[in-house]
Amino acid sequence: MNRRAGQVDLFFAPGTEQELLKIREELRSEAIERRKLAFEKYADQLGQERIHSQSFSKEHGQTFIKSVFLLNGGAILALLTFIGSMYGKNDLNVLAAISLGKKIVPAFYCFAIGLCSAALVALIGFFNWNLIANSYPGPGPLFDFLHHKPIEEKPATRKAIGWTYRIAIVLAALSIGCFVGGANLVTTAFSVLGID
Fold first, then answer.
1. Domain boundaries in the chain?
2. pTM score, two decimals?
3. Closest CA to 43 of 133, 132, 140
4. How far apart, in whole angstroms, are the C-alpha atoms of residue 92 and residue 125?
5. Could you tell me if 102 and 121 are in contact, meaning their C-beta atoms sit under 8 angstroms apart?
6. Among 20, 73, 95, 185, which residue's CB has the most CB atoms within a 10 Å radius?
7. Which of 139, 125, 159 is nearest to 56 (CA)?
8. Which class for 126: exposed (0-12), middle (13-18), buried (19 or more C-beta within 10 A)?
9. Contact of 183 with 75, CB cutoff 8 Å
10. HEC profile of the chain
């Protein structure tokens, strides 16, 4: 009752049971609609993350391939150029170039192994990012998720990513180590020329 004499405030007045059930149903449908919108927004975010992972796969592979190939391949080209320039001078330099060439062969192997391991790292990185991208639910599982069915997670994906990640780290270290080892072999090979 309102403070005024005898007037009833209809907003707070008890309604019939049918009116209460109708109000409850409206509130329930509104809550369901909000939950559905939240699920749809979450599903859209998962889809966007999947797209981002696929683009990271491409960028990762390109960047690493370029940098490590440049290091090891550039070292091979520089050595070949240097030895070639020594052959072009005179007879004394040809003998020194032959001696230097024999001493530098292990360095070429180091740089070549570095190139191969860099290629393997890039390949593993590509596959890892694809595994990550495929671990996100696709349109079918997202549809199931929106209709309150659980999304099945692939446990083998996480295990595969872990192992290939570790292998990639070892191969990356091998590639850098081969570059350093090859550079060290080159510096020791210059002792043939009398350079210490």
1. 17-193
2. 0.59
3. 140
4. 48
5. no
6. 185
7. 125
8. middle
9. yes
10. CCCCCCCCCCCCCCCCHHHHHHHHHHHHHHHHHHHHHHHHHHHHHHHHHHHHHHHHHHHHHHHHHHHHHHHHHHHHHHHHHHHHHHHCCCHHHHHHHHHHHHHHHHHHHHHHHHHHHHHHHHHHHHHHHHHHHHHCCCHHHHHHHHCCCCCCCCHHHHHHHHHHHHHHHHHHHHHHHHHHHHHHHHHHHHHHHCCC
**Tens digits of per-residue pLDDT, 3-35?**
555 565 555 666 677 877 888 888 888 888 888
55-61: list long-range contacts, CB under 8 Å, 24+ apart: 56/129, 57/125, 57/126, 57/128, 57/129, 57/130, 57/132, 57/133, 58/126, 58/129, 60/122, 60/125, 60/126, 60/129, 61/122, 61/123, 61/125, 61/126, 61/129
Which residue matches tokens 């960047």? Answer: 63
